[in-house]
UniProtKB/TrEMBL annotation:
Entry-linked InterPro entries: IF-2B-related (IPR000649), IF_2B-like_C (IPR042529), M1Pi_N (IPR027363), NagB/RpiA_transferase-like (IPR037171)
UniProt main location, coarse: cytoplasm
Function: Acts as a component of the translation initiation factor 2B (eIF2B) complex, which catalyzes the exchange of GDP for GTP on eukaryotic initiation factor 2 (eIF2) gamma subunit. Its guanine nucleotide exchange factor activity is repressed when bound to eIF2 complex phosphorylated on the alpha subunit, thereby limiting the amount of methionyl-initiator methionine tRNA available to the ribosome and consequently global translation is repressed.
Region (Disordered) location: 1-145
Recorded family membership: Belongs to the eIF-2B alpha/beta/delta subunits family.
GO cellular-component term (any): cytosol
Basic and acidic residues composition-biased segments: 35-44, 94-128
Compartments where located: Cytoplasm, Cytosol
Quaternary data: Component of the translation initiation factor 2B (eIF2B) complex which is a heterodecamer of two sets of five different subunits: alpha, beta, gamma, delta and epsilon. Subunits alpha, beta and delta comprise a regulatory subcomplex and subunits epsilon and gamma comprise a catalytic subcomplex. Within the complex, the hexameric regulatory complex resides at the center, with the two heterodimeric catalytic subcomplexes bound on opposite sides.
Source species of the chain: Elachura formosa (spotted wren-babbler)
Amino acid composition bias (Polar residues), ranges on this chain: 131-144
Name of the protein described by the UniProt record: Translation initiation factor eIF2B subunit delta
Stored SUPFAM superfamilies: NagB/RpiA/CoA transferase-like
Record lineage: Eukaryota, Metazoa, Chordata, Craniata, Vertebrata
Composition bias, Basic residues: 45-56
Length: 408
């Protein structure tokens, strides 16, 4: 018998490892049915699995096992020797058992069991590798100081060229002038707004032809010159001007009030933002007003819609500013006791109201240290209001704060 498998004339295949498989006697033809395509694919899969199993048993450095004998002289060493296909007589029929004594169902069950075992081994290896990787990573202790400096994103900073170009296009589209900056900026504060007071925003405006309402122009100048200060005061003034703007508004033909009025408000808001950046309270009030305008039903007449919007603004002023200030003051002055020394900085209408209510309504005897700084010197207004109510006050500049802190 040669080294490689041979097929005799009778159809019995001779194999080098396991010897000749028994076939039909000489002169008798094999009547077994030919293999179907699915059965051939199944046999190929079984052979591949056997090869993988042998390689895994021998190790990664071992060469793949060959099914046949050494290759022929004309065949390259890297390729496996060709194997002869199994004879049709070796494959049992549907109801027959192979010579090993196992049926097809038993063989399938064995193959499934082997596949499940291989999957379990792979999952176990993956779990071990992941666990080793996590243990190898050094964990940073929470007490370690982080030296990474977090900066603001570029689009938030004023000196970002992309943000400047975007703002200029927006203002040009809305017909709002761009406020001029200082010629030479302070490097330390280059990411903040630095407007020139010598060049007012209205210098580039033509009042008769502008889209900005005169009341909004006046309010913007008061913001930029510091005449109206404080979060609550600025928000109240803004809503009062919006009420006047709504009263003077008339819906153009073929337009809806709920859409056109929101579009008319945008240039006014951009103008006020150029005069001085909007505070948080002003931003909340603008969002509220836009929402109420967009929720107006189309069936309302223009007069009814305008009256409803003005009532909603009055309700917002009462609930969100007046009543909210009363609630905060009532909660805060309960924490002030007799002979306390309280330090305040600048001027805040809500802080002043809390201190005055604690002195007048509760009769608390306390002292206030008012700290102030240039250039606005807003603490002087706080000092006037508190002294007028009979509260004992001390007025110092911010550079002397370290001398008064021990007694506060």
């Amino acid at each position: 018998v040669p080294a490689r498998a041979q097929v005799s004339g009778a159809g019995a295949a001779v194999w080098p490892d396991c010897g000749a498989r028994p076939g039909p006697p000489d002169g008798v033809c094999s009547q077994a049915p030919e293999l179907s395509r699915e059965e051939k694919l199944q046999l190929r899969k079984e052979k591949k699995q056997q090869k993988k199993k042998k390689r895994s048993e021998k190790g990664p450095s071992a060469e793949p096992a060959e099914l046949g004998s050494p290759p022929e002289p004309g065949q390259p060493r890297g390729e496996p020797a060709p194997t002869s296909p199994p004879a049709p007589a070796d494959v049992p029929g549907d109801g027959e058992k192979p010579m090993g004594g196992k049926s097809k169902a038993e063989l399938r069950a064995e193959r499934r069991a082997k596949q499940e075992a291989e999957r379990a081994q792979k999952q176990a290896r993956k779990a071990e590798l992941s666990q080793a990787a996590t243990t190898a990573k050094p964990r940073q202790s929470p007490t370690e100081p982080q030296c990474m400096v977090k900066r603001l994103p570029e689009h938030v900073q004023v000196n970002d060229p992309a943000a400047q170009r975007k703002l200029a296009k927006k203002l040009e589209r809305q017909q709002v002038p761009l406020r001029q900056d200082y010629g030479t900026k302070v490097n330390l504060f280059s990411h903040l707004h630095q407007y020139s007071r010598k060049k007012p925003l209205t210098q580039q405006m033509s009042i008769p032809s502008t889209v900005i309402h005169p009341a909004v122009v006046r309010l913007g100048l008061q913001y930029s010159q510091g005449i109206i200060n404080g979060s609550n005061a600025r928000c109240i003034a803004l809503l009062e001007v919006f009420k006047q703007l709504i009263r003077d508004y008339s819906t153009p033909p073929n337009e809806e009030l709920s859409r056109d009025l929101v579009a008319k408000l945008k240039p006014h808001i951009s103008f006020l933002n150029q005069c001085r950046p909007l505070s948080a309270s002003m931003g909340n009030a603008i969002k509220f007003l836009k929402k109420e305008i967009s929720c107006l039903p189309d069936t309302l007449r223009e007069d009814e819609a305008k009256e409803k919007l003005q009532d909603m603004i009055d309700k917002y002023l009462r609930e969100k500013i007046v009543l909210a200030a009363e609630a905060i003051s009532r909660s805060a002055f309960e924490k002030i006791n007799d002979h306390d020394v309280i330090l305040v900085y600048g001027c805040s209408s809500l802080v002043n109201r809390t201190l005055c209510d604690a002195h007048a309504k509760k009769g608390r005897a306390f002292r206030v240290v008012v700290v102030d700084s240039r250039p606005r010197l807003e603490g002087r207004e706080t000092l006037r209001r508190l002294v007028r109510r009979g509260i004992h006050c001390t007025y110092v500049m911010i550079n002397a704060i370290s001398y008064v802190l021990p007694e506060v």
